[in-house]
Amino acid sequence: MRYVQEFRQAAAVQAWVEAIAQRVTRPWTLMEVCGGQTHSIVRYGLDTLLPEGVTLLHGPGCPVCVTPGSVIDQAIAIAQDPQVIICSFGDMVRVPGERQQSLQQARAAGAQVQIVYSPLDAVAIAAKNPDRQVVFLAVGFETTAPATALAIAQAQQQQLTNFSVLLSHVRVAPAMTQLLADPDCRIQGFLAAGHVCTVAGLAEYPAIANRYHVPIAITGFEPVDILQGIYACLDQLESGRSEVVNCYGRAVQEAGNLAAQQWVERVFAIADQDWRSLGTIPEGGLEFQPEFKSFDAHCRFAITGAIALTSVNDCISGLVLQGQKQPCDCPAFGRTCTPEKPLGAPMVSSEGACAAYYRYRRTQVMN
Ligand code: SF4
C-alpha cells in the first residue's frame, strides 16, 4: 500500500535507528502526543530501539481518555428518557463515567444507545425518528470537530428540532502548553499529532516551541514516521534549537485544512474545557456559537456540568495521560483492569496507552 508499507520497511527503520544512535550524546525525554503514535511505538517496540537514556512519554492525545466522566454521566442521565436516542462512537460506550457506569450498561438496562461512525449518521437517525430526541455525544480533537460542525449545520438546514449535541471536543495545543507549564515537567520535545495538524495546521506551535524552548516535530504514525520525528527532536536538542519541523509532509500542510477550520469557526468558539484527569484547560475546547446554541443538549435537557464523584478506584490514568507514569506502573494494570473489565478509559480506547500495553503484552517499563 503506497504511503504505508514504505514507512514500515525494516531497512528504513534500521537506518533511522542508526542515525539517532549516532546523533545522541546524552539522555533526552520526548513525549508523543497522540495515542495512535503510542500504539505504533508499543506495537513495533520502537522505544526499545532507542539509545539508552532516550525516553518516550505517552501523552494525552486519546479522545476517549480525556472526555470527562461527568459528560458520560450526563449522557447516561439523558438516556433514561425513553424518548431519547443517544448516538456515540463505539469506544465511548464502554468507558465508565464518574459513577463507574457506561453507556453500554445503560443500553443493557434498556436505554436507546446507538453506535455511529459519523455525526452525520446521528442526523440521519434524527430525520428518520421525528418523534424522538436524538443526542450525539461529540468527543475528540481537531480531527473530529469539523464533522460535528457539519452535522449541526446540516441539522439546521433540515430544520431538525429533535437533534442536539452533547459537546466535549478538545484542542491539543492548549493541553501541550499546560503540560509544559508544570514545574515538574520532564518533556524536552514533542512529537505532535500529524492528523490534528492535517486539519488545524501548524499555527499554534511556534509560540509553544519558543516560549518553552522545546522542539516540536509534526509526526505521522508509521514506524519510519515516528523515528523521523524522534530524530528531528533529538537533532535540535543536541544543537540547542527549538523549532517546529513538519516530518509528515505527505499529509500536513502548514495552513491545514482551511475548509474544515471554517466549518468549526462557524459553529463553535474556543472555550475553556474540562479534560478528564487533567482539570480545566484554558482554551482547551469548544463551545457553541450563539447561532447554534439551540443544538446544545445542555440547554435542551437542562443538565448541569458538575456531577459529584461518587466512587473511587485505583485508576492512575491522570498520571498516565500526563506522562508521569507508565500503564504498567498502575497496580490495577492487567489485574483488576483489563480490556474486558476496564477501570479507566485508557484501557478501553483503541488509542489508550493502557490498552496498547495490554494488547502488545508489555508488562514492564522498557526505558
Ligand atoms: S491500567 Fe486501568 S486502572 Fe490503571 S491507569 Fe490504566 S486504565 Fe486506569
CATH architecture of the largest domain: 3-Layer(aba) Sandwich
Rounded to the nearest angstrom, the radius of gyration is 21 Å
In CATH terms, what is the fold-level topology of the largest domain? Rossmann fold
Mean pLDDT: 92
Main β-sheet description: 5 strands, parallel
How much strand? 15-25%
Widest β-sheet, arrangement of strands: 2-1-7-8-9
Q: CATH top level of the largest domain?
A: Alpha Beta
Count helical runs.
15
- Approximately how much helix is present in the residues? 25-40%
Spans of at least 5 consecutive residues whose pLDDT stays below 50 are 305-311
CATH superfamily of the largest domain: HypD, alpha/beta domain 2
Number of folding domains? 3
> What class do helices, strands and sheet pairing give?
alpha/beta
- Ligand types: iron/sulfur cluster
Descriptive notes:
- The protein is of the alpha/beta class and 367 residues long.
- It contains 15 helices and eleven strands.
- A five-stranded parallel beta sheet has the order 2-1-7-8-9.
- The longest helix is centred in the middle third of the chain and has 16 residues, at 223-238.
- The chain starts with 9 loop residues before the first helix and ends in an 8-residue tail after the last helix.
- It comes from Synechococcus sp. (strain ATCC 27144 / PCC 6301 / SAUG 1402/1).
- InterPro entries: Hyd_form_HypD, HypD_1, HypD_2_sf.
- Keywords: Iron, Metal-binding.
Spell out the blueprint of helices and strands.
Blueprint: H1 10-23, E1 28-34, H2 35-44, E2 54-61, H3 63-66, H4 69-79, E3 84-88, H5 103-108, E4 112-115, H6 119-128, E5 133-140, H7 145-157, E6 163-169, H8 172-181, E7 189-193, H9 194-200, H10 205-212, E8 216-219, H11 223-238, E9 244-246, H12 258-267, E10 268-275, E11 279-288, H13 297-301, H14 317-321, H15 353-359
Parallel strand pairs: 1-2, 1-7, 3-4, 3-5, 5-6, 7-8, 8-9
Antiparallel strand pairs: 10-11
Helix pairs in contact: 1-11, 2-15, 6-7, 7-12
The structure holds iron/sulfur cluster.
